[in-house]
Amino acid sequence: MHLVVQNAFHYNGNFPSFRQPTEIGCFSLDGERQFHDDNHQLKYLVMPRSITGLHMDLNKGYSEAIKKDFQKKEKIDTMLRWILAHQEKVKNVFMIHGTNTIKIDFVCFRGLLTEICSTTYENKEDWLICATKYKSVIFLCGFDTEQDVQRREKMTERDKLMSSWGYKFEQYMVSDSQNAKPNTSIPVNEKEEYCIMLKGRLNNHTLLYSAEVDGEDPSYYRHPGSDPNSTRRYMELKTSRIITNERQDLNFCRYKLLKWWIQSFLVGIPKVICGFRDDQGIVRNLKVFHVKEMPRMAENLWSPAACLNFCSQFLDFVKHCVVKDDPHVVYKFYWKPGSDITCEELSSPSEYQILPEWFISEFNI
Predict the structure, then answer these.
(1) Taking the model in full, what pTM does it have?
(2) Cα 141-87-68 angle, rounded to 5 deg
(3) Per-residue pLDDT, 348
(4) For position 350, what pLDDT does the model report?
(5) I need a surface site. Which of 74, 190, 210, 332 has the fewest CB within 10 A?
(6) For 25-52, what is each residue's pLDDT tens digit?
(7) Bridge partner list, 203
(8) Are 66 and 191 within 8 A, CB to CB?
């Protein structure tokens, strides 16, 4: 089976029904990528006194930094561990009002939804998504494509250095507690994460998904009546090269703002703080981007409605294809720019098996 991917203009129009996501839980991954059912990795934003005339050296401590191991495939295991630890809560949150019916259509990471939403504007990178249906829930998991593997293998030392800059910038901008200052003298550990679990709905698709969050913004609580459970208390941290001409500005709005908007919108995060750096990896100034203003900044370059409408149609297609309710049956969806999305049922899932046996035996929703 296949799904034709049309020009982005085809999906434009009315914005689909999208319920503001609600946070239903969190978990932490420590420096060894071990799962903790708590919020000990939550960080707090510390803004510098001035957002201009800065000298944040993103190369500092690079040789001591602890890198993520991309060879080790975690799939969606961390999220599955949270689900098993909170099955009663999940049942209550996803129970259809006035019934005993639980409705969860999809379980996935926010990053996978971001990838789907940006598909119609993507002209370089392919993707591979696998799906398994178990107890009426479709579990989605992204996998590396050949292109992804080759890209990582071809990374130069300069590429590796630049990919570490975002992690170091976060260290300059957050602290472990609300009244502490950032500590940039310790090695960055890229394995650590703070993640939240969310309930959302796109048209008729009910979603349970997880997102890594950079930190909480203490200034959120200065507003009277601030809901301490709202995802609006979070913010995103990004880095980008200093923009020096119109073409760079156009590309920034077309590509970076698109991804930033999708990522933030899917969680309900209101702002992105960007550190603008030079080619030597020194952040010179900061700028705060308000998520609701991003589509206007990128007017005529991309459409929020097109992103979400396409995502909804893809999820319709997945529901149509994934019919066997069996944790050992896997459906593989593949897309590359300029092509249709293809779906095949794998006779021997092996490396693409999504659900581990420890989850299959304990999951009883």
Answers:
(1) 0.97
(2) 40
(3) 86
(4) 87
(5) 74
(6) 999 999 999 999 999 999 999 999 999 9
(7) none
(8) yes
Let me know: does 307 contact 328? Beta carbons within 8 Å. no
At how many degrees (to 10) do helices 257-267 and 110-117 cross?
130
* Residue found by looking up tokens 């700028």 in the block: 287
Radius of gyration of the chain from its Cα atoms, rounded to whole angstroms: 21
DSSP string, 160-224: HHHHHHHHHHHHHHEESSTTPPP--SSPPBTT-EEEEEEEEEETTEEEEEEEE--EE-GGGGGST
Q: Are 94 and 88 in contact (CB under 8 A)?
A: no
Query: Residues 113, 209: contact at Cβ < 8 Å?
Result: yes
Q: Which residues of 30-55 are buried (b: 16+ CB within 10 A; e: fewer)?
A: eeeeebeeeeebbbbbbeeeeeeebe
- The answer to whether 110 and 211 are in contact (CB under 8 A) is yes
Label residue 111 by pLDDT band (50, 70, 90). Answer: very high
Written as one letter, the residue type at 176 is D
Burial (CB count within 10 angstroms: exposed 0-12, middle 13-18, buried 19+), residue 97: exposed
Summarize the confidence of residues 71-81 as an average pLDDT. 92
How far is the CA of 94 from the CAs of 21, 102, 106, in angstroms? 13, 5, 12
Model confidence pLDDT, tens digit, residues 255-313: 999 999 999 999 999 999 999 999 999 999 999 999 999 999 999 999 999 999 999 99
Q: How far is the CA of 88 from the CAs of 38, 164, 253, in angstroms? A: 17, 39, 43
List, for residues 138-179, the tens digit of each pLDDT value. 999 999 999 999 999 999 999 999 999 999 999 999 999 988
Only one residue has tokens 């969680």, namely: 267
Strand partners, 175: 44
Side chain identity, residue 59: N
Cβ count near 272 (within 10 Å) = 22
Kindly state the DSSP code that residue 280 receives in the 8-state scheme.
T
Q: Which amino acid is at 210?
A: S
Burial 233-250 (b: 16+ CB within 10 A, else e): bbbbbbbbeeeeeeeeee
The answer on pLDDT for 218 being more than 80 is yes
CA–CA distance from 299 to each of 198, 241, 293, 304 (Å)?
29, 21, 10, 10
- Show the tokens assigned to 40: 């000990």
**Which residues make beta-bridge pairs with 277?**
241, 283
Q: How far is CA 200 from the centre of its chain?
A: 14
